[in-house]
Amino acid sequence: MGKREISEAVSARFEERRQAAEMQAMRRKSELQAALPALAALDRERAETATELMNAAFQGREGLEKRMGAIRERQKALLAKRAQILEKAGYPADYDAVKRRCDKCGDTGFVDGKMCPCMKREIVMEGYRRSGLGKLLERQRFDNFDLSRYSDSPLPGKSLSARDAMKTIYRDCMKWAQRFSLDAPSLLLIGNTGLGKTHLTSAMAKSAIDKGFDVLYLSVPTMLSRAEKERFIREGSEEETIVQQMLEAELLILDDLGAEPSSTLASSLIYTVVNERATVRNLPTIINTNLDMAHLERTYGAAVTSRLLGLFKVMHFVGSDLRIN
């Protein structure tokens, strides 16, 4: 799903929301008029004043302001009387008013031709939902990535600690997110399970979505399962395939590369997606894997590994499993 589809979905939701609010107001108005005959008579009188305003406007400029002012004062009095009737009957004054969620745009999504902040927020939230990361985006952020959970003891044979190494990766990921654009470099996150790859990936994805970019997250096993099923889609189908979605997403995130059973389809598909996104479409990709480079080459072959090394910035996550700690 691209930005256009997300915007269309949110716009349709706003339209449905407006219609639902108007229908509810109409139902409540009918309910009140049936229960309160005096209110029904007053509403008819109020409707007549609207006609009187129109007629007053056609009677010429002379005395127009006075005529209009008198009718408007009468409308105010009728409205006040209506509120008294409702209050006496135990209803709030706005019981049958059209309830809008946003007073700025009236749930149209636009104010003076510009997108209202409420619609911008909904587009962002829809981006969260459609990205595939779901709840992870809410709880895995840069501001709650805890570097203190990494050991400050030197790594075997090195002078720096896991905490030092991860501090550098953390800062690099944050800079990548802050500067994110379609020209951003692709990233290959390598490291054992539980070292924070998914956490930092979620944080980067959230930043991209908040900036209005289209993000697609898929685990590689899930992606391959869907691709395998779609090989049997009838010819001429207009349904967008998973491969199309992966090639077109402004930011693609592939998680758990190497967790799927080894197959020719896996190697071929990974190569096609990585190569076309990087060299043809110039779109950034993030790939997470628990495999080191030697295992990646044995699993996917030299061609895929060469593409990853040549086209991606490699980040090596180190330390012990944070979830166990």
CATH superfamily of the largest domain: P-loop containing nucleotide triphosphate hydrolases
pLDDT averaged residue by residue: 85
Q: How large is the count of helical segments?
A: 12
Total separate domains: 2
Which CATH architecture of the largest domain?
3-Layer(aba) Sandwich
- For this structure, the CATH topology of the largest domain is Rossmann fold
- Regarding quaternary structure, what we see is single chain
Report the radius of gyration as a whole number of Å.
Answer: 30 Å
Shape type = elongated
Largest sheet entry: 5 strands, parallel
Contiguous uncertain segments of 5+ residues: none
Please state the structural category. Answer: alpha/beta
Total strands: the figure is: 7
Q: Strand arrangement, largest sheet?
A: 4-5-6-3-7
Q: Termini, distance in Å?
A: 38 Å
Share of residues in strands: 5-15%
Q: Report the CATH C-level class of the largest domain.
A: Alpha Beta
- What is the H/E string? HHHEEHHHEHEHHEHEHHE
Considering DSSP H and I runs of 4 or more, what fraction of the residues is helical? 55-70%
Characterization of the model:
The chain is α/β, with parallel strands linked by helices and 325 residues long. The chain has 2 domains: 36-99; 132-316, 3-Layer(aba) Sandwich (Rossmann fold), CATH 3.40.50. 56% of the residues lie in helices and 10% in strands. The protein is built from 12 helices and 7 strands. The protein has a 5-stranded parallel beta sheet with strand order 4-5-6-3-7, with helices on both faces. A two-stranded antiparallel ribbon has the order 1-2. Helix 1 (3-35) crosses helix 4 (117-131), helix 2 (37-57) runs antiparallel to helix 3 (64-89) and helix 10 (264-280) runs parallel beside helix 12. The chain is elongated.
